[in-house]
Amino acid sequence: MTDFGREIANACDNILNEFEIISYKSLGYSNNITGKLKISIVSTGKYIMPYFLSSFLNEHQDVNLLMDVTNRSKVMSSLEKNEIDFALISILPENHNFIELELMENKLFLVGNKSIADEITKNKKSLDNIPFIFREHGSGTRQIMENLIIKNKIRSKKNIELTSNEAVKQAVIAGIGISIMPAIGIMSELSSGKLKIIEVKGLPYITKWRLIWLKGKKLSPIAQHYIDFLMKEKDNIKEQFFHFPGIK
User: Fold this and answer.
1) Other CB atoms closer than 10 Å to residue 80's CB: what's the count?
2) Cβ contacts of residue 71 below 8 Å, gap of 6+?
3) How many C-beta atoms lie closer than 10 Å to residue 194's C-beta?
4) For the chain, where do the domains classified as CATH 3.40.190.10 start and end?
5) In terms of C-beta density within 10 A (0-12 exposed, 13-18 middle, 19 or more buried), how is residue 231 classed?
6) Which of 30, 172, 192, 247 shows the greatest Cβ crowding within 10 Å of its Cβ?
7) Is the pLDDT of residue 246 over 80?
8) Mean pLDDT throughout 185-203?
9) pLDDT tens for residues 1-18?
10) Would you say 131 and 177 are in contact if contact means Cβ atoms under 8 Å apart?
């Protein structure tokens, strides 16, 4: 894009922002807002983000949600390019330039199906030569798994790579291998006994689910309204939907 093109693009952005502000102020008298809320979330975030959106969207029927569910590297790329209002991640990059709002804890455990987990736990079997199931490159969970293997000097028999958390979960249940997964996505499988936690040094790995946005970004009225909503309601949402007895 030429310098002239950039000036035109910036001018258009300003016009659209001002139009949205005017619309917001006009509808403020009827306690209503309208427009788009654009969020990009890491794939495991799909287990929590809907609960932090539901009441807000039900209250504001004219707000349209655009939510992209992808891996961490693509989420960060969308944020850095200012293509979205917010991103949901659990592992912050170093030297970041973002504002963050913590939503809740994210605990990750090493899990296997009942047969594999019992064999490891009861017989104190080494994790060497047991297949590890990884997410693709760019995934935050993959980074945690790689660090765990290095720190514990595990000699994995082979590595299997899958591109979604649901695929990883089903592969672990089927007994193909073991993997690190967030507790939030496997609660029913842990309760039913399809999956079991394997205790290992360095786990559980605890991070925070964070909603982040660029420093200095001029939030749209809808985006600011959503932040105000979360500041007020996030603790109530967490208590209502994410209380898991038995998971330490």
Assistant:
1) 14
2) 42, 43, 135, 136, 138, 139
3) 17
4) 3-105+209-241, 106-206
5) exposed
6) 172
7) no
8) 93
9) 788 887 888 788 778 766
10) yes
Helix (H) or strand (E) holding 76: helix 72-80
Phi and psi at 244, nearest 5°, equal -120, 90
Residues 6 or more apart whose Cβ sits within 8 Å of residue 81 = none
DSSP 178: B
> What are residue 65's phi and psi, to 5 degrees?
-100, 130
Q: Between 154 and 16, where is the model more confident?
A: 154
d(CA 233, CA 100): 16
Taking the alpha carbons at both ends of the chain, their separation in whole angstroms is 52
Domain covering 106-206 in this structure, CATH number: 3.40.190.10
pLDDT digits (tens, 9 = 90+) for 33-90: 788 999 999 999 999 999 999 999 999 999 999 999 998 899 999 999 999 999 999 9
Tens digits of per-residue pLDDT, 117-131?
999 988 777 898 899
**Quick one: tokens of 16?**
């659209």
Average the pLDDT over each of 33-37, 188-192, 193-197 and give the range with the smallest value: 33-37
Omega of the bond leading into 204 within 30 degrees of 0 (cis): yes
For the segment(s) 3-105+209-241, the CATH number from 2.30.30.40, 3.40.50.12280, 3.40.30.10, 3.40.190.10 is: 3.40.190.10
